[in-house]
Design goal:
Layout lengths: L3 H5 L3 H4 L4 H11 L9 E5 L7 H7 L3 E6 L2 H10 L5 E5 L12 E7 L8 H11 E12 L1 H5 L9 H9 L3 H10 L5 E13 H9 L11 H17 L4 E14 L1
Parallel strand pairs: 1-2, 1-4, 2-3, 4-5
Antiparallel strand pairs: 5-7, 6-7
The chain binds S-adenosylmethionine.
C-alpha cells in the first residue's frame, strides 16, 4: 500500500490513540527481565513511534525504530525531542542492522501488510541474538469477523480476512523460519465510541482497510453513520477487539 501511510502520517496518532492495554503491553515488554543491558530493542514497522517512544521511556536498552515510510519516520523523529530512539529507514525484509544485535524484534500491527511474512521472520531472526524474541501483536480472524465497522462497511471483513493471518498460520511460519518455542496468546479489549468519534476515524481512514473498501460502499457507510448521528447524537457504538500476542524464541 505505497503512499497510504505517508498520507495519514500527520493524523495517525490522533486517529489511533494508544489504549491502556497497549501501554501495559509496552511496559511489560520494555521491562522484561530476559532483556540484557546490551540488547537492542527493535520495533519493525514503527510508524510514528506510537509504541516505540513509550518503549524507550521504559527500556534500559537502546531502542531502534525501523519503517520504510519516510513521512511516518519524520513524525516519529519530531516527537522524539530527547533523541531516545534510533530511527532508521528500512523494511522488514532488509533490516539496517547487523546479525545478532537485538534482544527483541517487535512487529505491532504490521504482519497483515507483509506479502512475504516468512522472509520477514527470517530477517528478524538474523538480527536477534540466541534466545532473543520475536514479538508480534496483531488482530485475530475472529476480530476481523466481528469488527464493529462491518455493519457499515461489509467489505472490511472480506478484505481483512485475506490480510490478517490466524495464530496457527503465524506459528507455523515462525517455526519454518527457525523459531522455537512459539506461543500465541489471545487478549480481548472492549469499549464503546461516540458516533462522532467513529465518523472522525472513518473520515480519517484510520485503518488502512478503509482505503481498500469500494468507494461507493465507503460513501454510503459514512452517510449511514452521519444519519445515525442526526437521529441519536449521544449514541455510543460498542466494540470488541481481539488480539493475538505471539512470542517466538530464537
Ligand atoms: C498500521 S502501522 C503500525 C505502526 C506502529 N507499529 C503502531 O503500532 O502504531 C503499519 C506500519 O508498518 C509499516 N510497513 C508497511 N510495510 C512494511 C514493511 N514491509 N516492512 C516494515 N514496515 C512496514 C508502515 O509504513 C506503517 O508505518
Amino acid at each position: 500500500m505505497p503512499g497510504l501511510f505517508a498520507e495519514i502520517a500527520d493524523r495517525y496518532d490522533a486517529l489511533r490513540p494508544l489504549q491502556a492495554r497497549d501501554r501495559q503491553r509496552v511496559v511489560a515488554l520494555g521491562s522484561a527481565d530476559w532483556l540484557r543491558r546490551d540488547d537492542l530493542v527493535v520495533e519493525v514497522g514503527c510508524g510514528t513511534g506510537r509504541m516505540t517512544l513509550p518503549l524507550a521511556e521504559i527500556s534500559a536498552q537502546q531502542v531502534v525504530g525501523v519503517d520504510p515510510e519516510e513521512r511516518m519516520l519524520e513524525v516519529a523523529r519530531g516527537k522524539d525531542v530527547a533523541g531516545r530512539v534510533r530511527w532508521l529507514r528500512g523494511t522488514a525484509y532488509r533490516l539496517p542492522l547487523t546479525d545478532g544485535v537485538a534482544g527483541v524484534v517487535l512487529m505491532s500491527m504490521v504482519v497483515h501488510l507483509l506479502k512475504q511474512p516468512g522472509r520477514a521472520f527470517a530477517e528478524a531472526r538474523r538480527v536477534l541474538r540466541p534466545e532473543g524474541r520475536m514479538v508480534i501483536w496483531t488482530f485475530t480472524p475472529r476480530h476481523v469477523r466481528e469488527f464493529y465497522l462491518n455493519e457499515w462497511f461489509p467489505s472490511i471483513a472480506w478484505i481483512d480476512g485475506q490480510r490478517f493471518p490466524a495464530g496457527d498460520t503465524l506459528e507455523a511460519g515462525l517455526r519454518r523460519a527457525g523459531f522455537a518455542p512459539v506461543a500465541v496468546d489471545i487478549e480481548e479489549e472492549t469499549g464503546a465510541l461516540a458516533v462522532e468519534d467513529v465518523i472522525d476515524r472513518v473520515r480519517g481512514r484510520y485503518i488502512s482497510t478503509l482505503s481498500l473498501v469500494p468507494p461507493l460502499e465507503y460513501r454510503l457507510g459514512l452517510q449511514r453513520l452521519e444519519e445515525l448521528r442526526t437521529l441519536d447524537g449521544g449514541r455510543r457504538i460498542p466494540y470488541r477487539l481481539e488480539w493475538a500476542i505471539v512470542t517466538a524464541i530464537k
